[in-house]
Sequence to fold (268 residues):
Amino acid sequence: MLPEGRVCPQLLQITDTHLFGSPEKSLLGVNTRDSFHAVLDLIEQQPAEIDAFLATGDISQDDSISSYSAFAHGIARFAAPCYWIPGNHDDPRIMATELDNPTLHAAKQIVYPKWQVLLLDSQVKKHTYGFLSESQLLFVEKAVAEYPDRHCLVLLHHNPIPVGCRWLDQHQLKNGSQFLDLLSRLPQVKGVVWGHVHQTLDRMHNGIRLLSTPSTCIQFKPNCDQFTLDTVAPGYRRLTLLDDGEIDTEVLRLKDNPFAPNLASKGY
Ligand SMILES: Nc1ncnc2c1ncn2[C@@H]1O[C@@H]2COP(=O)(O)O[C@H]2[C@H]1O
Ligand SMILES: [Fe+2]
Fold:
């Protein structure tokens, strides 16, 4: 719930932390534990109140218990609750045990006075691409019918539209069109937010704001056919859900990127 006197939820999306069990390990030249902590430092420096963190998957890179406990330990420095969904790299069984305490757990639906936030599971076991099952799609319809007077924000790991990188778009949400067609019939839905693509996007589709968010570690360069890393800094997204259904949002990044990746990398 929100503190008394405030109706606009302030949410922070952190995504694709790709943590390892070992604090020494790097992904393509970036120590993901250190970059995660640097992003948390940046969040701590902001004056904004935080009502919840939304962690949109690929929390772990190696599916070790200690990678998930590193996430839990890091996020525990904030009092706000953190809700997570799995990404293609995650093991939901380990998440269910390691990321489960009063302020950190899986969530499907968060209800605020003027908004509801839905968190969908787009993971397909052993595959990099995503898919939303019939039950996930039905859940969206039911949730909107349950609270027809509230605006609705939907989060998932995978991108429902191609972002313009051919190598990456093969791994998108396979039924993205079906998903967006459904949302377009639900006027309560104001925005869709995802991770996975390690880059920023902000576009409108049939009145719905489509937003993607940088990773807290490596970034992918937009509009590249082949795997290409970007030099822009790790970051996160602030989302403020306004009473009138508008989404006030910004991406905040580390200054003077201290986490330069190995630009010669061809993949992972
Ligand atoms: N060179 C590559 N070509 C295609 N896919 C890749 C390449 N390198 C990595 N990937 C996959 O693409 C995924 C995109 O983001 P993820 O972090 O989910 O994990 C990545 C890998 O599973
Ligand atoms: Fe991913």
About this structure: Residues 16, 58, 88-89, 128, 167-168, 171, 196, 227, 266-268 surround adenosine-3',5'-cyclic-monophosphate (ligand 1) (CB under 6 Å). The CA atoms of residues 65 and 122 lie 22 Å apart. The radius of gyration is 17 Å. The helical segments are 32-45, 65-75, 92-98, 134-146, 166-169, 176-184.
